[in-house]
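Q: What residues go here?
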């Protein structure tokens, strides 16, 4: 072989080798609003993935939470968005899918690791396409000062009657505000109030889906009864609760001045850092002994594929891993209170987080009643539920009047309720 031919052969081999190397050496970028998670992704999650996937590198590039939707939409329109897109639940992500900015991931093997409830926040209305891999949910219930309970000889209530007996005992003792929640910001009244206790009355998914289908209405007993309970809460929230903000309530509890806190599990990390007393948690008490229990296990965050990504194969490899038991274990323990939505039995290192997640084995899971489909019109049912819940707790509106107002608003634009 001549030197000329040999040189040409070596050059071809070098070019081919370079092509193979570049094909294997891919960098994926992730768009997200969780800028508080940056170090977690850089130091824990990405290294765990890259260790077993040589040739695929991952960069986590978050935006500020309040700016995420606008920034992401601008990047998508300009063709400069990342390969992977962190998905908010329901309508915001559905709109991205309908605009062609999220790929259908229904054929991912990892989707088999998630229940229909877990997938529902990132599906088309008819469930025919799932466009994001579920990552985590938050669970609602009540966090309590375990030292205060021990001091007063109280046990965790399991029924509504027991719940109010505990509140009465705390009120009678006088050493603690029975329950820390204000209504100034309104959303807490609905999120930690109505949608916390409500699933036990409307039977979780059964009632939520019946409302969407127009088979139940907000004036039915199952939907009015939670307001009747909330109407009693005002007696136990302490002086000035009407003007009390969300941070005020957090401070009252972590400073040891209130015995019970109607909670979302996202509070766990902050409460662990700020409270100097032992804490426990109990699920929403059921109306009657022996009733099935239901918890709001609300879908919060997922991740999807940008269809314009030039690295779709590598991105799908990453998404399969996000649906794995390894990812579920890493993420749930790095962020106590943000629970894996997978079917895997993920052991939690934080005892309070483990208490919350254990309820999945005892109770039926559902999501907040207003989040899927029912808040797309005007008036917005989610925002109206904030206001109605706050008004009922204040005593400014009766449970029946609040329910009738919400029903009239929903029926004004939502055809199945007309």
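A:
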């Amino acid at each position: 072989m001549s030197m000329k031919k040999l040189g040409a052969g070596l050059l071809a081999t070098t070019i081919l080798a370079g092509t193979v190397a570049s094909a294997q050496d891919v960098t994926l970028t992730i768009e997200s609003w969780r800028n508080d998670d940056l170090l977690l992704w850089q130091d824990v999650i990405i290294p765990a993935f890259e260790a077993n996937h040589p040739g695929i590198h991952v960069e986590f590039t978050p935006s500020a939470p309040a700016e995420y939707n606008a920034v992401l939409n601008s990047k998508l329109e300009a063709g400069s968005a990342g390969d992977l897109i962190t998905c908010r639940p329901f309508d915001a992500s559905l709109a991205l899918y309908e605009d062609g900015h999220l790929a259908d991931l229904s054929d991912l093997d990892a989707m088999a690791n998630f229940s229909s409830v877990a997938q529902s926040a990132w599906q088309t209305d008819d469930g025919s396409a799932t466009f994001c891999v579920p990552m985590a949910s938050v669970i609602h219930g009540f966090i309590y000062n375990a030292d205060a309970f021990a001091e007063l000889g109280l046990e965790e209530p399991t029924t509504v009657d027991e719940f109010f007996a505990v509140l009465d005992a705390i009120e009678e003792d006088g050493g603690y505000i029975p329950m820390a929640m204000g209504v100034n910001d309104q959303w807490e009244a609905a999120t930690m109030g109505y949608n916390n206790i409500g699933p036990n009355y409307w039977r979780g998914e059964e009632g939520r889906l019946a409302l969407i289908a127009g088979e139940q209405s907000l004036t039915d007993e199952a939907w009015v009864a939670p307001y009747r309970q909330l109407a009693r809460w005002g007696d136990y929230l302490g002086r000035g609760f009407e003007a009390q903000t969300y941070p005020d309530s957090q401070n009252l509890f972590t400073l040891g001045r209130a015995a019970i806190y109607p909670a979302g599990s996202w509070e766990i990390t902050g409460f662990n850092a700020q409270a100097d007393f032992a804490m426990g948690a109990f699920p929403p008490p059921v109306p009657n002994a022996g009733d099935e229990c239901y918890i709001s296990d609300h879908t919060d965050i997922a991740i999807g594929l940008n269809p314009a990504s030039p690295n779709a194969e590598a991105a799908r490899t990453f998404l399969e891993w996000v649906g794995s038991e390894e990812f579920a274990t890493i993420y749930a323990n790095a962020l106590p209170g943000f629970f894996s939505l997978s079917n895997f039995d993920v052991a939690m290192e934080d005892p309070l987080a483990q208490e919350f997640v254990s309820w999945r084995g005892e109770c039926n899971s559902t999501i907040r009643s207003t989040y899927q489909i029912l808040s797309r019109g005007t008036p917005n049912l989610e925002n109206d539920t904030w206001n109605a819940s706050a008004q009922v707790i204040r005593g400014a509106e009766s449970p029946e009047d609040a329910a009738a107002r919400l029903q009239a608003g929903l029926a004004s634009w939502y055809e199945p309720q007309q």
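A: Context that may help when evaluating the design: Confidence is low (pLDDT under 50) at residues 1-23. Residues 3-24 form the longest helix (22 residues).
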